[in-house]
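JOB MANIFEST
job_type = single_chain_structure
chain_count = 1
residues = 299
[input]
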Amino acid sequence: MSEQQPLVYAVTLNWNRPDDTIACLRSLAAQTYPNLRTLVVDNGSTDDSLARIAAACPEALRLARGDNGGFARGMNLGIREALARGAAFVFILNNDTFLAEDAVARLVAAMRMTAVFAALAPIIYYADAPQRVWSVGGQINPWLLETRENLRGAIDEGQWTAVMERDFVPGCGLLLTRASLEKTRGFDERFFMYYEDLDFCLRIRETGQKIGVLPTAKMWHKVSLSSGGSDSPNERYWMARSSVLYFRKHARWWQWPLIGFWRLGSALRTTWRLGRAGQRGALRAYWRGLWHGVRERPS
């Protein structure tokens, strides 16, 4: 009699994007892993998302929030439900992603074989350039708390096979152990959108646990759809606000001189770029986000 595989719950969020969510859920339904269940949290959609998802993917468990509380709050709701239902692993993923059929099976097998990682991510490609790397995570500069992505834009020709240890990985596709979620208590819900995954990775590593990327597990990502696209006013606002919250939460006194200098330079470069492109709405949203981040510091 074959060994029972650990129960894995895949958790994704929907907000007024049922087509993407249905495609994501169908990608999960095609997974070869035998003990995988799916859960979608609807973050206060104002369209017919729930009805359409229920009709297209009746096997997926559906939870509905009355409002859009952001990525962290919605994902935490799904994670708590998955753990309450006995999940040994929770695979969180954006609804604008899709997976190779063996991705979850490879992630679980690697997680169980190594037994040293609390979080393991697939290699993630651009959806419109299927062999071009969007993310394999990266390192965090200890002085600036800034991230440096490794290999973004590189072409995968099969040169990466071994697990890569990382300081951080993006939250758009990540297998997490039950123990890591119980230790960290999920995402910090004060981050509405952006930086919640970086904050989460820092807290995982502070508990002495490791984070990695498995290049043989593959995922594709439609970048920045949930926020309206790169450099949209919504994206610029939340990116700016969350960045201030992140640095105010994690920076130590001895890091602030360099961080302050670096972030000022970043703000000026962003202002110049948006202004030169005539994106006045995005520019106003960016500075509003910075100001709101200063006023609303996480404890």
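[summary]
The mean pLDDT is 92.
The first strand starts at residue 8 and ends at 14.
exit_status = 0
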